[in-house]
TrEMBL record:
F-type ATPases have 2 components, CF(1) - the catalytic core - and CF(0) - the membrane proton channel. CF(1) has five subunits: alpha(3), beta(3), gamma(1), delta(1), epsilon(1). CF(0) has three main subunits: a, b and c. The keyword Ion transport applies. The lineage of its organism: Eukaryota, Viridiplantae, Streptophyta, Embryophyta, Tracheophyta. Transmembrane segments: none annotated. InterPro entries: ATP_synth_F1_dsu/esu (IPR001469), ATP_synth_F1_dsu/esu_N (IPR020546), ATPsynth_dsu/esu_N (IPR036771). GO terms for cellular component: mitochondrial inner membrane; proton-transporting ATP synthase complex. This is ATP synthase subunit delta', mitochondrial. SUPFAM superfamilies: Epsilon subunit of F1F0-ATP synthase N-terminal domain. Belongs to the ATPase epsilon chain family. Mitochondrial membrane ATP synthase (F(1)F(0) ATP synthase or Complex V) produces ATP from ADP in the presence of a proton gradient across the membrane which is generated by electron transport complexes of the respiratory chain. F-type ATPases consist of two structural domains, F(1) - containing the extramembraneous catalytic core, and F(0) - containing the membrane proton channel, linked together by a central stalk and a peripheral stalk. During catalysis, ATP turnover in the catalytic domain of F(1) is coupled via a rotary mechanism of the central stalk subunits to proton translocation. Keywords: ATP synthesis, CF(1), Hydrogen ion transport, Ion transport, Membrane, Mitochondrion, Mitochondrion inner membrane, Transit peptide, Transport. Residues 128-200 form the ATP synthase F1 complex delta/epsilon subunit N-terminal domain.
Length: 258
């Protein structure tokens, strides 16, 4: 379908004529062309489709073959599970380096320092490997657990071994790490959770603190202060900052009362 706002020729539409061309058909085997004009906006629509009289199985098969031939050369985007488990050496850089400095060993590239990605297991593993890091510390490193529950922006999301590959944005809330009968809870301010197809979960948070280290009195005081700031804010910036404070302290209060 092609839409056009250009002025129509006078042969089709007279400037002062009250009659408007609403439909015009032209059949060119094996296709038919339709032309329609919608007044008063003067929109022109063109459509090209196979003619009813000439449409056949051979024509449909021809169109399908043409479509498949056009798509056959398009490269498919590789998924994370298609990437080899072992890092591939940067051979192109090494070859270019040898041409310039054949007597010197090429320097190491970032690929040389990357650990091999664990292969996707053929059977469903019994444990979920969790890496939980902050900008300044590592809370969990290759920790094998039964389940984690992350506070995603779309809702609480439980992650078990064999979970489908997912990227989730985190909102202020409780991150629960389940290991047998033990449950460790952290309050996270924001971040992202990367769930991989090989039952590895990488959780990155801006701020996080164990629930048992939060002072309930300070949370209540902070919630009151930010609520007052929100009510007295006069600019959009002040309202936004106060609203963030109210949301975070409300989530902290809910985490403590849960």
């Amino acid at each position: 379908m092609i839409w056009c706002r250009e002025n129509l020729p006078s042969a089709i539409l007279a400037p002062k004529s009250k009659h408007r061309l609403t439909h015009f058909s032209l059949q060119i085997s094996p296709f038919s062309l339709s032309l329609s004009l919608h007044s008063p906006s003067l929109f022109l629509s063109l459509s090209l489709r196979p003619s009813e009289t000439e449409r056949s199985d051979s024509n449909i098969a021809m169109l399908r073959r043409a479509t498949s031939s056009l798509l056959s050369g398009v490269s498919r985007r590789r998924l994370s599970t298609d990437v080899p488990a072992t890092p591939v050496a940067d051979s192109s850089f090494a070859e270019a380096w040898k041409k310039v400095s054949p007597n010197l060993e090429p320097p190491k590239t970032p690929l040389s320092f990357m650990k091999a990605r664990p292969p996707t297991p053929s059977a469903l593993p019994s444990k979920l490997t969790v890496n939980f890091v902050l900008p300044y510390a590592s809370q969990l490193s290759a920790k094998e657990v039964d389940m984690v529950i992350v506070p995603a922006t779309t809702g609480e999301m439980g992650v078990l071994p064999g979970h489908v590959a997912t990227i989730a944005e985190l909102k202020p809330g409780v991150l629960s790490v389940h290991e047998g009968n033990d449950v460790t809870k952290y309050f996270v301010s924001s971040g992202f959770a990367f769930i991989h197809a090989n039952s590895v979960a990488d959780i990155i948070a801006v701020e996080a603190v164990p629930i048992d280290r939060i002072d309930a009195n300070l949370v209540q005081k902070g919630l009151q202060d930010f609520t007052q700031k929100l009510n007295s804010a006069s600019t959009d910036l002040e309202k936004a900052e106060a609203q963030i404070g109210v949301d975070v302290h409300s989530a902290l209060n809910s985490a403590l009362s849960a």
